[in-house]
Amino acid sequence: MKMLAESVQRLTVLKPDPLPLREHLFDERAALASALARAVAADLRGAIARRGKARLAVSGGSTPRAFLIELSKQTLDWAHVTVVPVDDRWVAPDHPRSNERLLRETLFQGAAAQAQLLPLRRPAPTPESALLPVLTQVANEALPLDVVVLGMGEDGHVASLFPDLARRDIGLQPSGRAPVLAIRSAAAPEPRITLTLSAIFTAPSLYLHIEGAKKRAVLEGAARDPRSLLPIRSVLSGAPVTPQLYWSP
Ligand SMILES: O=C1O[C@H](COP(=O)(O)O)[C@@H](O)[C@H](O)[C@H]1O
């Protein structure tokens, strides 16, 4: 495994707005996937040791596939782990764009299939019509989280919190009241459902899993610019813990 560097850095030169970020940089995606899986598994074991259960929220999309497969191979008491996607697309669970499908195909394999999956998507026509039962179940069974692994789109979105988010007052507030939000975005081809930052920020371990030079430039731009309205900036500026960046080209 090659790791280029690991350090705690402040990713801005614009004072007074230092944004702490602990960086784990790799030159290969496979090395990143196994290192991140080991780190997340250690956090989950710690949570199970402390309180008998662990709650994990993971991102969807294309980036986390190798990491989720590596995580499924980690030895831990999976029967005491609850997994919730940080967001999902409002499509059938067998649809190629379903984040729930990604989780079932990758993480929920072998011993890890004993974990409890808490899907965000329901067999209802719209995310708005299912919001109350989903929100209630997330609040009761998934929060507070122990570990969150957030991806990021090239437009700076995290989970399904897009730059054109209408309800920034709910989705991006560090201590908002609603843990779940229904999403309609011009950037997304389908309706979505997502955890809000107030739900994400309940976790004492927050990882950013970001791959590629373009996404890194977006991240660093958002970290440098205090006026940035990108959702990733709200993560960096609002997180109550130091986010850990796992990055590879
Ligand atoms: O739509 C989504 O996008 C982001 C980033 O996805 P990627 O394909 O660029 O890795 C992801 O984190 C989120 O969970 C997903 O629903």
From TrEMBL:
Q: In which pathway does it act?
A: Carbohydrate degradation; pentose phosphate pathway; D-ribulose 5-phosphate from D-glucose 6-phosphate (oxidative stage): step 2/3
Organism's domain of life?
Bacteria
Keyword annotations for this protein, in alphabetical order, are: Hydrolase
Listed CDD domains? 6PGL (cd01400)
Query: Catalytic activity annotated for this protein?
Result: 6-phospho-D-glucono-1,5-lactone + H2O = 6-phospho-D-gluconate + H(+)
Residue limits of the Glucosamine/galactosamine-6-phosphate isomerase domain?
28-237
State the EC number(s). Answer: 3.1.1.31
User: Single GO molecular-function term?
Assistant: 6-phosphogluconolactonase activity
User: Has UniProt tagged this entry with the keyword Coiled coil?
Assistant: no
Q: What does this protein do?
A: Hydrolysis of 6-phosphogluconolactone to 6-phosphogluconate.
Q: Which family does it belong to?
A: Belongs to the glucosamine/galactosamine-6-phosphate isomerase family. 6-phosphogluconolactonase subfamily.
Task: Name the PANTHER family on file.
Answer: 6-PHOSPHOGLUCONOLACTONASE (PTHR11054)
Q: Spell out the protein name for this chain.
A: 6-phosphogluconolactonase
Q: Gene name on record? A: pgl
